[in-house]
Amino acid sequence: MTSSVRRPSEDGPTAVQAMAPLPGQAGGTHSVLDRTFRLLCVFTLDQPELTLGELTALTGIPRTTVYRLAGELVSRRVLDHSNGRYRLGPQLFELGERVPRLRSVRNRIRPFLRELRERTDCTVVLGVLDRDEVLYLLEAAISRSPSTALRDGQRIPVHCTAIGKVLLAYSGRPTIDRIAATGLPRYTRATIVGAGLLRSELGRIRSQGYGTEYEEFRYGYASVAAPVTDAEGNVTAAIALENELARGDPGRFAPLLRAVATRVSIRELTPGES
Fold it and tell me: Which of 153, 197, 214, 273 has its CA 20 to 30 A from that of 84?
């Protein structure tokens, strides 16, 4: 998202969120690995370039340590550095492309996303649940998508987006309880902020097989999402259609979306395809 979108915090994880331990993990450490990850995680889609001073302020790591770590990361192409600013380097992209599960899912589903975009004239996205957020793996945007369109690699909340609610509805009860207990931030007047209301919404999603949201995350936008399952019937991802409400209700495409998501799931059951 861009800074024009109304949110309680800037796009992507904040510096504090980026440095937070994984659920169930002990608190942070002062190891070199911990500091390196803290350094890398403060870069966001809206802040792709940072100065040495900004890295120091965002991470809370001493300036001399940041300078040394950043220099080592630049030498390994994990960071780029020019004109006094650092940015994530190509080595991270190369490593990301080697993640077998995510690469396989993207390759299998990309043709279906393109089909949905052509048949609905909506932006189509593929996402998975990761660290209690939705991680966007693949986007098929319409040509006139505004600058606020969601992008590959972006993270969005689960409780106020169609794709997030679908992924949450089919996750385990501990995940639902944890997210409900940590608080549900309000993004718009329509955002669900009550745990009871969220649980009712998730039950409705499981019953009907898809989820919707209308201006719960961004004013003027709506979305509909359906789950994608693996060979054991577990929901591993979700596909969503997103549209500006001024251009029509994407919810009208729910039957088509469910049908395509089913086809994707069936393809996942077919061994030997790529």
Answer: 153
Residues 25, 37: Cα–Cα separation, whole Å: 15
CA atoms within a 13 Å half-sphere pointing along the CA-CB vector of 13:
21
**In DSSP terms, which residues pair with 239 in a beta bridge?**
126, 226
As given in the structure block, the two tokens for residue 127 are 């996402």
Q: pLDDT tens across 153-196, in order? A: 578 999 999 999 999 999 989 999 999 998 999 999 999 999 99
| The last residue of a domain, from among 62, 96, 130 | 96
**The pair of three-digit structure tokens given for residue 6, joined into one six-digit string:** 């109304």
Quick: pLDDT tens for 216-244.
Answer: 999 999 999 999 998 888 898 999 999 99
> How many Å apart are CA 149 and CA 262, to the nearest integer?
26
Say yes or no: 116 and 63 in one domain. Answer: no
Question: What does the chain come to in residues?
Answer: 274
Q: How far is CA 214 from the centre of its chain?
A: 18
Domain that holds residue 116: 100-269
Residues 108 and 236 in one domain: yes
Q: In the structure encoding, which two tokens stand for residue 107, read together?
A: 């390759």
